[in-house]
Structure to design on (801 residues):
């Protein structure tokens, strides 16, 4: 079960109502034309909550287009004023708007505009991404893909992450179902509801971020000061999952996640990670020696030796020795054979099949994150 | 991609950077529109008052036209003084919390206020009511989250959580939904770290200046012209310059138009020049090379079109302008003359405050109380809000049709005037 172990995913989240024709009388450039296509409401009482930030946020998605170009497509995400949340606009909405306003890159979902409509609702005009997400592709047994495809997807992910870090933004929730796919096959980093800018040195940040399976050891150990290395670890996990087609480290709890990391890569100790024993939640049960290069070669034969090297550099336990997003981009794997697949040749999700899968997903596997649903909505729209 | 390109994609550059004249024009336009609305609102209030008084109905007051002309509105300059006062108050408010709110949060709140009042007038929305909300929104956007309740408790007086949060959406609209503010603080810290490394002989020479070595840089920093105040060591000197610059960035840089006119790095470098000119110039030289020696120019023609030296000349001009702006600032509270003029402005505002915008809480908690007949005219300066409000009122009047027995009769009545 993919229990999303943190905050802004609330059990009482009701994502849009399955109603019809919500017409926005929007004054801004984009105008809604289509129907409000509903994402299904999810309720998952098993989700752990560490803070209640996002109770009962009602969101609606609408398909729209630019007034001067009816063939264009945008997704309009409506954030309703939350009557339950008394402290004004919620944190995840603020984070999302704040960072997407600043980040403009091919591999980061574009926020075209924000406008207000009646009753003080906030409407985000987002890039239309009808291609689903990487998780759908990974899970779809009918889709076959090779290392060239993985290289293309990882390349796009790495460029998006590098750009965020270059702008001093930590994403803090990288996982396959936050990596959306555009109509032309381009991968876009989405869901900035947990993003924040780098803290100044010595200032604390919360360690309760990143979905558990993709969470690096320093956060599991409760580090309050961390860097872009947290996102690089998540990228490494996505890389491994793309190769294996199952999550590499699917811990059942935070403790289980730590032991899975130890089993896979070795136990963090003062020798391989100076200072690790000083972290607040440092625990180990058994001492597993640090895994060497041969482990990665054995475990990920499809990546080839150079690819295994790259993956290994992203999965270094000590965040200070882990590769940075820039170092990832500079790795020689990208220029080694095989070349990354061209976007137009990348495997796509198949429409009808995909939609069924989507509905059959277990609640726990689902992310209720905003863009996730935006993307799903687009599937439904295509089916009409 | 260079840093400048990245900065140009920021909302601070795209939406919140101006030239001196465009800034002035924008403020004048805002002031004009707001003044007209204030006059119109006061006229409507008087008409309502007259029609409510039986003796006055049907007999137009001969003096009313003259009276209307006497509504004296604030000038753009007066508005600016008022906003600045509340920016200074924001710093004080941040100090009342235990622990005090971080500098970044306060600076963000101040810039929110300054941005908001580019397109909104204090005559429409009193800064007193916007100030607390701006500070609260800044705690949310700058990762210093506290609950609204504990935030409101920290405000002296009897401000309720509802008072704080009421103008939130309005404020966010005024900010055009951009929450990111690029401050000069981080750049200063980086520069100070570089200088400290140089002083310890660990400086990293710029790759385009091969003549520099860690040793030559260290020698250079140790042999600078003396600082404005005597110091015991180079570490002491850097520390003092750091502190003095930071103070300028916390005060003058916040209270003037610096953020609208200059980039964060221009602002901190200008403040650094004020704090310790020789040290700041040395720092620039480590990046741009020193000034061109006129004798060398005769012998070596290549230096004639040295792009770095052209850049240096241009940059020093900009930094000089920015430094002059920062130095023009004196805190209102420390200057009796300014305080006197502020009191006059506050008094004047009392008479030209838009009466229809006084209770902001109506907008969120009880919007139905808004008189629908004023829908077309009573709006803020921002076009989006105008349209949003219009839609809201249309919807309300529709809803009211069935529910509120007092609503429907009054509305057509009032529009007839």
């Amino acid at each position: 079960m993919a229990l999303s172990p943190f905050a802004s995913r609330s059990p009482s989240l009701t994502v849009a109502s399955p109603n019809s024709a919500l017409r926005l009388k929007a004054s801004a450039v984009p105008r809604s034309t289509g129907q409000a296509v509903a994402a299904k409401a999810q309720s998952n009482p098993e989700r752990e909550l560490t803070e209640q930030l996002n109770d009962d946020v009602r969101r609606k998605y609408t398909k729209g287009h630019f007034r001067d170009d009816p063939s264009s497509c945008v997704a309009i995400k409506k954030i309703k004023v939350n009557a339950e949340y008394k402290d004004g606009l919620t944190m995840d909405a603020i984070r999302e708007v704040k960072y997407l306003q600043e980040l403009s890159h091919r591999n980061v979902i574009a926020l075209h505009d924000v406008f207000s409509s009646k009753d003080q609702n906030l409407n985000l005009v987002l890039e239309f991404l009808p291609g689903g997400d990487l998780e759908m592709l990974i899970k779809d047994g009918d889709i076959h893909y090779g290392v060239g495809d993985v290289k293309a997807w990882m390349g796009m992910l790495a460029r998006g992450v590098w750009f965020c870090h270059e702008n001093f933004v930590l994403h803090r929730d990288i996982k396959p179902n936050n990596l959306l796919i555009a109509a032309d096959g381009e991968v876009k980093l989405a869901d900035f509801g947990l993003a924040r800018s780098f803290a100044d040195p010595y200032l604390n940040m919360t360690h309760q971020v990143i979905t558990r399976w993709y969470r690096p050891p320093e956060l599991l150990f409760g580090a309050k000061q961390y860097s872009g290395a947290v996102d690089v670890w998540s990228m490494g996990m996505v890389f491994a999952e793309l190769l294996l087609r199952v999550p590499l480290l699917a811990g059942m709890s935070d403790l289980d996640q730590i032991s899975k990391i130890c089993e896979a890569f070795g136990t963090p100790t003062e020798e391989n990670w100076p200072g690790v024993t000083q972290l607040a939640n440092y625990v180990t049960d058994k001492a597993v020696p640090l895994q060497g290069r041969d482990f990665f070669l054995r475990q990920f034969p499809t990546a080839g030796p150079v690819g295994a090297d790259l993956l290994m550099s992203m999965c270094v336990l000590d965040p200070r020795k882990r590769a940075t997003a820039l170092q990832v981009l500079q790795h020689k794997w990208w220029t080694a054979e095989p070349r990354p697949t061209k976007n137009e040749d990348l495997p796509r999700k198949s429409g009808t099949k995909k939609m069924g899968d989507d509905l059959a997903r277990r609640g726990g596997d689902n992310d209720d994150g905003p863009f996730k649903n935006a993307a799903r909505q687009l599937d439904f729209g295509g089916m009409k | 991609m260079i840093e400048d390109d990245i900065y140009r994609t920021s909302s601070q550059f795209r939406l919140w950077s101006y030239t001196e004249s465009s800034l002035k024009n924008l403020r004048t336009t805002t002031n004009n529109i707001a003044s007209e609305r204030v006059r119109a609102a006061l006229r409507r209030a008087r008409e309502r008052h007259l029609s409510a008084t039986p003796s006055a109905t049907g007999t137009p007051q001969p003096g009313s036209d003259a009276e209307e002309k006497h509504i004296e509105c604030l000038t753009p300059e007066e508005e600016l003084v008022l906003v600045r006062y509340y920016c200074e108050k924001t710093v004080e408010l941040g100090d009342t919390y235990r622990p005090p709110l971080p500098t970044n949060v306060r600076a963000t709140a101040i810039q929110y206020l300054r941005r908001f009042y580019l397109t909104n007038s204090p005559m429409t929305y009193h800064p007193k009511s916007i100030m607390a909300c701006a500070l609260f929104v800044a705690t949310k956007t700058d990762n210093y989250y506290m609950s609204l309740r504990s935030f409101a408790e920290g405000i002296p007086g009897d401000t309720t959580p509802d008072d704080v949060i009421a103008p939130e959406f309005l404020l966010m609209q005024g900010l055009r939904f951009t929450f990111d503010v690029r401050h000069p603080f981080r750049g200063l810290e980086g520069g100070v770290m570089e200088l400290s490394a140089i002083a310890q002989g660990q400086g990293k020479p710029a790759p385009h200046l091969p003549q520099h070595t860690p040793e030559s840089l260290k020698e250079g920093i140790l042999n600078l012209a003396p600082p404005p105040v005597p110091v015991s060591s180079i570490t002491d000197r850097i520390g003092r310059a750091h502190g003095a610059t930071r103070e300028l960035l916390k005060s003058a840089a916040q209270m003037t138009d610096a953020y609208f006119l200059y980039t964060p790095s221009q602002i901190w470098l200008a403040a650094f020049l004020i704090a310790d000119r020789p040290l700041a110039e040395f720092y620039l030289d480590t990046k741009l090379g020193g000034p061109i020696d006129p004798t060398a120019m005769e012998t070596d023609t290549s230096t004639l079109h040295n792009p770095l030296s052209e850049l240096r000349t241009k940059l020093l001009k900009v930094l000089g302008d920015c430094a002059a702006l920062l130095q023009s600032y004196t805190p209102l509270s420390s200057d009796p003359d300014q305080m006197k003029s502020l009191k006059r402005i506050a008094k004047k505002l009392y008479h030209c405050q838009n009466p229809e915008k006084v209770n902001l809480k109506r907008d969120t908690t009880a919007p139905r109380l808004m008189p629908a007949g004023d829908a077309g005219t009573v709006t803020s300066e921002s076009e989006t809000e105008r349209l949003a409000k219009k839609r809201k009122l249309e919807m309300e009047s529709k809803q009211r049709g069935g529910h509120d027995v007092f609503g429907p009769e009054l509305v057509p009545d009032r529009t007839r005037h």
